[in-house]
Amino acid sequence: MAINWFKYASPATFYPLAGRMIPWFAWLAIILTLFGLYWGFFETPSILTDQKQYYRIIFVHVPAAWMSMWLYVVLAGWAIIGLVFNTRLSYMMAAAVAPTGAMFTFLSLWTGAFWGKTSWGTWWDWDPRMTSELILLFLYVGYMALHSAIDDTRRADRASALLAVVGVVLVPVIFWSINCPDPNQCAALHQQSSFKGVESNILLAMLVLSIAFWMYSFAVAFMRVRNIILERERNTQWVRELPEVCE
Amino acid sequence: MSFAEFISMGGYGLYVWSSFGMTALLMIGEVVILRRQRRTIIQRLCRMSRIEKRPGATP
């Protein structure tokens, strides 16, 4: 069966589709969050005894950090599709993802500060991963600032998309910034880690909350893209005829 | 585990709850802001369509 993907590239057809998907992603996010929090707080006390309880910070720190990088890849992906095919909806999706990505970047820095204070004795350090994550926050803010600084929407879309695409080089830098062969030789606080060393209950809570944050991102991006569509298409007939817009 | 023990998180309560609290605040806040934004946009669209339907209005 051939699906005509370009049919959904029209804001008029995507608007109701996004609306139908929001509750599914929202409920998935809520259920997975509750499960992940339950597991992280009530199925781990035997492992996370008194002096290790601060370890629970990673249940929000790691998912937020993963989402901050992943949403930037999504943002750059929509920017590339927009630049290649010149589809308005791609630019709208890029703009819809950015604030959520910036929020998760801030959260990974915020929760990281509390983690750092407890486990390394410092709120902040110019560790390679923390520094590159801070630059990621500036990139998100720069993308949004550039977009809102240009009055002509289509020019704003293209200019900020270009910035987003160039900035994507930072994501692998963040990802591999822990590759310090000898901890004594470099001042990196984030060290190489693997799933194998993590206790299974901790890993479960962390992974479930990561999927929950991902589902949340879908729901919120669809909510925001619907707002963007309504604003940009306000002069079109189909928006005027929507049931939610009063007679 | 008592409630007080749960809140204190082995002495790390401030750190753990500051992390979870800020995360909850921002994630719930984002949804609240988006819903309010949608209401505002729809209200404005309604006003616009009422003005245009007024007799004698120039489209």
Provide a descriptive summary of the structure in words.
The complex is a heterodimer of chains A (247) and B (59). Chain A is mostly helical. Chain A is built from eight helices and no strands. Chain A has helices at residues 11-42, 58-85, 88-119, 128-149, 153-167, 170-176, 200-232, 237-240. Chain A is globular, with a radius of gyration of 20 Å. The relative contact order of chain A is 0.17. Chain B has helices at residues 3-8, 13-53. Chain B is mostly helical and 59 residues long. The longest helix of chain B is centred in the middle third of the chain and has 41 residues, at 13-53. Chain B has one domain (3-53). Chain B starts with a helix and ends in a 6-residue tail after the last helix. The A-B interface holds A 41, 45, 49-54, 56-57, 60-61, 64, 99-100, 103, 106-107, 110-111, 114-115, 117-118, 216, 220, 223-224, 226-227, 230-231, 234, 239-240, 244-247 and B 1, 6, 9-12, 15-16, 18-20, 22-23, 26-27, 30-31, 34-35, 37-38, 41-42, 44-46, 48-49.
Topology, please?
The complex is a heterodimer of chains A (247) and B (59).
Chain A: H1 11-42, H2 58-85, H3 88-119, H4 128-149, H5 153-167, H6 170-176, H7 200-232, H8 237-240
Helix pairs in contact in A: 1-7, 2-3, 2-5, 2-7, 3-4, 3-5, 3-7, 4-5, 4-6
Chain B: H1 3-8, H2 13-53
Briefly say what this structure is.
The complex is a heterodimer of chains A (247) and B (59). Chain A is an all-alpha fold and 247 residues long. In chain A, 70% of the residues lie in helices and 0% in strands.
**Tally of alpha and pi helices of chain A:** 8
Distance between the termini of chain A: 39 Å
**Mean of residue pLDDT of chain A?**
90
- Sheet-strand content of chain B, in percent, reads under 5%
Q: Kindly name the structural category of chain B.
A: mainly alpha
Order of helices and strands of chain B: HH
Q: What is the distance, rounded to the nearest whole angstrom, between the alpha carbons of the first and last residues of chain B?
A: 69 Å
Shape verdict of chain B: rod-shaped
Sheet with the most strands, sense and barrel status of chain A = none
**Beta strand count of chain B:** 0
Biggest sheet architecture of chain B: none
How many whole angstroms does the radius of gyration of chain A measure? 20 Å
Compute the number of structural domains of chain B: 1
